[in-house]
Amino acid sequence: MRPLLISYPGLKEKLSHIDLGEFPTPVQKLDNLGRYLGNDDIYLKNDGLSAPVYCGNKVRKLEFLLAEALDEGAKEVLTFGFAGSNHATATAFYAEKIGIKSISMLMPQPNARYLRKNLLMSYRAGAELHQYPDKKFLALGTINEMIKHMVKRGQFPKIIPAGGSSPPGVAGFINAAMELKIQIREGLLPEPDKIYVPMGTGGTAVGLMIGVKLSELKTRIIPVRVIDSQYANEDIVCNLFNKTISFLREKDPTFPHLKISKEEIELKEGFFGQEYALFTQEGMNAVRLLDDKEGIKLDGAYTGKAFAGLLSDLKKGKLKDEVVVFWNTYNNRDLSHLISNIDYHDLPEVFHGYFEEDLQPLEI
Questions:
Q1: Rounded-to-integer distance, Cα 255 and Cα 260, Å
Q2: How do strand 194-199 and strand 220-225 relate by DSSP bridges?
């Protein structure tokens, strides 16, 4: 049973949930990195080990999102992302496990190894894969696919927003912060002063913000923006925060009426780079450093850029005498054995170029 549902029985009764992951995820003190950087209080919360097979932060969100789809009797779910979307792949993987078809509506992005792996994993999970050149065509394609599937199945697919960042998905990371509070109480780490986390569509960061308030932790959440500012900004954070509180209070009126102001949001800028999922030198240096010192894998699109933000603050002396946690959202399980026998030619032709063209220059 998840801590959020234990603490609020009304949510246990009315908030749809299924167990998909293995929680709590481990906390690790980064001793080797700490010695290298001269800081003895750097920790990592590893959602890269959130499940036996496909991991990462999306598992927490999908425990609530896919449960809602099941309760509504959905036969299919439709979601969005870029070609290498971890969220789309996780949705496909876990939807298949519970007997629901998944449809991925994708847009192009710079080529990368993780992108290839995610496309193959999505195909293995039976996802229906589509790619559109831009948001306009994606919107038109979504309307078309919704109608087609309605005619075929007799009902519309259940829409899951990009990144799983809706109130039910956010609930997964409120629960995560409550999980961390238990680990603090058990002595696995001191109460953090700051938690650094990648900021994409916002659900992970907002859930942690609500969760630390709910748990009465002093911890400040530092979201590091890794997508275009039109998708990640203070207004979006406030809106999703308030929508989630209203959603949960409708389910259980005993849930506190928490509030947030734009001034409280410490959105860290300067690490996104020039384009979504286009790796940066600073981000890839951060990826290599954590791998070299601790043997932990990050990615160049999200976690590497976010970790670079943390390292920058460390090197500037902004985190002196503070306990710092990096929340790893990237899958750390090796999936190669699951996709080694899949021929990329079996994917829709629009995706073949990712397997035939060069990787981006900074790819390790």
A1: 15
A2: parallel
